[in-house]
Amino acid sequence: MLKIKVKVSKVTNLSEARYCAGMGVDFLSFPVSQVDPKTFAEITGWVAGPKFGVEINSDDYDQYKADFVDTNCESLDTLQQDQLAFVHLSVNEWFENKVNLIRAKDRIIGVELSIHSIDDAKLLIEEISKEFDVYLKPATSIDLESMLELHIAGISLEGNPETKPGLKEYPLAEILEKLESD
């Protein structure tokens, strides 16, 4: 079991999906530009545990049987009314989109906040976490101890492609192992 919820995006292969599920990751999302509906169905059929989502840039996701959509603020209004979403935000986008996001609050599972520095984002994290579950996505190296002290629901990480089927490195392993409960 992990100390905090974890979302992994850019998952493109079964090996990574199975590894993440085995480590207790809560959410996996797949880019529709790289994973077709058939492959998505095959991978999600083999993996149990996490909720599955698709990363979209348009409204072309209806062939995927996903639990949620991973999207940006601009695309949120184009989603089907009953579609749950993770919304990507940079620090500056919160202020521009706050009203629209709060209006769509019942459809938003979490806000994935991209940050460069924890110190620069502490007050913003506090503000956003009053309305939404915040998943931090650090742009640089991760100081897990500092992140775990914040009022966040989880962290957001990215997968990486396989060199070839069955041959894969797991850069997420170090982070996920540090997050395992004692």
Task: Give a brief outline of the structure.
The chain is of the alpha/beta class and 182 residues long.
Tell me the layout of helices and strands.
Blueprint: E1 5-9, H1 14-23, E2 27-31, H2 37-46, E3 51-55, E4 68-72, H3 73-76, E5 85-90, H4 91-103, E6 108-115, H5 118-129, E7 134-138, H6 144-148, E8 154-158, H7 172-179
Parallel strand pairs: 1-2, 1-8, 2-3, 3-4, 4-5, 5-6, 6-7, 7-8
Structure description:
The structure is a single chain. The mean pLDDT is 87. The chain is an alpha/beta fold. It has a single domain (5-179), classed as Aldolase class I (TIM Barrel, Alpha-Beta Barrel), CATH 3.20.20. Strand 1 (5-9), helix 1 (14-23) and strand 2 form a beta-alpha-beta unit. It contains seven helices and eight strands. An eight-stranded parallel β-barrel has the order 1-2-3-4-5-6-7-8.
Main-sheet strand order equals 1-2-3-4-5-6-7-8
CATH fold type: TIM Barrel
Helix share of residues? 25-40%
The number of helical elements comes to: 7
| Secondary structure: number of strands | 8
CATH architecture: Alpha-Beta Barrel
Strand fraction: 15-25%
> How would you sum up the major sheet?
8 strands, parallel, barrel
Q: Roughly how many Å is the radius of gyration?
A: 16 Å
By secondary-structure content and strand pairing, the structural class works out as alpha/beta
Give unreliable regions as ranges: none
Note the overall shape: globular
Classified by CATH, the class is Alpha Beta
Distance, first to last CA:
9 Å
